[in-house]
Write a structure and sequence with these properties.
The protein is α/β, with parallel strands linked by helices. The chain has a single domain, classed as P-loop containing nucleotide triphosphate hydrolases (Rossmann fold). Helix content is 39%, strand content 14%. It is built from twelve helices and seven strands. A seven-stranded parallel sheet has the order 3-2-4-1-5-6-7, with helices on both faces. Helix 9 links the parallel strand 6 and strand 7. Helix 1 packs across helix 12. The two termini are 27 Å apart.
Length: 306
């Protein structure tokens, strides 16, 4: 486990509506903060990316074969409080494993390219805590446990002084896995698809957040709201974005993520878009996520400096 003298900032990436690029946002933000960038003035940070979604797509995004993964979030949650027979570090996948997996996935998906993967297909300073489908059964088990809302927070205590940023990818629901994520977080990041029904679902999400603030995590704040799947020159997207800014003001990031085939196809490169493609005008999806990462990095600095 890496050592850092800082106490981690914990960010939960939350939206109970599916198809809003929640996982894509979590993995690209985590990768950007871990890599850092001189061009975007982002300092490389030690990052832990936690998958709380039973679909387990975080590991898949990095080319990891889920069949080869060892202990996951499921085993950690199944522990009794105080049981240290299985540690968090036993379940994490580090940058060396992730880099090898990404390069292997690139080779598998590009067999005609005999020169091998580009040098930029790799990662540093990033660890992931993967999930699998068994995690979906944990909610039933959690319902009978004392302190069920705080199980993730207790688990992450092992990592707080080893990482600078912890990002949690949550499932598309407001069940106990998401509530655990909200209880463990310092702040939340909400990706919203730029469509008509997106803001309608925000009321339910905000209500759930307020309940958590009242009952178990009064310090939970809002890192920001990110507009995703934005269609350029779409009147509908402009209207939805305007409504979001009216209600949430400067909490809405200036950066927007375009609807992009490149983002959907990035797993074919064996890596998140910020790793698979360099952020240039010819790669607007990668460029957009790096611009968002710069904004997020500035807000994280404001939290750590306060």
């Amino acid at each position: 486990m890496p050592y850092s003298p800082y106490m981690a900032v914990v960010i939960a990436c939350v939206n109970h509506k599916g198809g809003c690029a929640r996982t894509t946002t979590a993995v690209n933000l985590a990768s950007s903060l871990a890599l850092g960038s001189e061009d975007y003035k982002i300092r490389s940070r030690k990052v832990l990316l936690v998958d709380m979604d039973p679909k387990g797509n975080v590991a898949t995004t990095f080319g990891v074969d889920k069949r080869s993964v060892g202990p996951t979030m499921n085993e950690l949650f199944a522990r009794e409080v105080g049981d240290d027979s299985l540690k968090l570090e036993d379940c994490t996948l580090g940058p060396d494993i992730l880099s090898r997996s990404m390069r292997a996935a690139w080779k598998k998906n590009n067999p005609e390219k005999t020169r091998g993967p580009p040098k930029h297909i790799g990662i540093r300073n990033l660890w992931i805590l993967p999930a699998d489908l068994d995690l979906s059964g944990i909610e039933v088990d959690l319902a009978t446990r004392v302190g069920r809302e705080n199980r993730l927070k207790l688990t992450l205590n092992e990592a707080m002084d080893h990482f600078e940023v912890i990002i949690i990818d949550t499932p598309a629901s407001l069940g106990l896995l998401t509530v655990n994520s909200l209880c463990a977080a310092d702040c939340i990041l909400i990706p919203i698809q730029a469509e008509f029904y997106a803001l309608e679902g925000m009321g339910q999400l905000i209500s759930a957040i307020r309940e958590v603030q009242k009952s178990v995590n009064p310090g939970l704040g809002l890192l920001g709201i990110l507009m995703t799947m934005v269609q350029i020159r779409s009147k509908l997207c402009e209207t939805v974005t305007a409504h979001a800014r009216k209600h949430f003001g400067d909490r809405v990031f200036e950066s927007q993520i375009p609807r992009s085939v490149a983002i959907a196809e990035s797993p074919l490169e064996g890596a998140p878009i910020v790793i698979a493609q360099k952020p240039t005008k010819s790669n607007p999806a990668s460029q957009s996520y790096w611009e968002f990462a710069k904004e997020a990095d500035e807000r994280i600095k404001a939290i750590t400096d306060s």
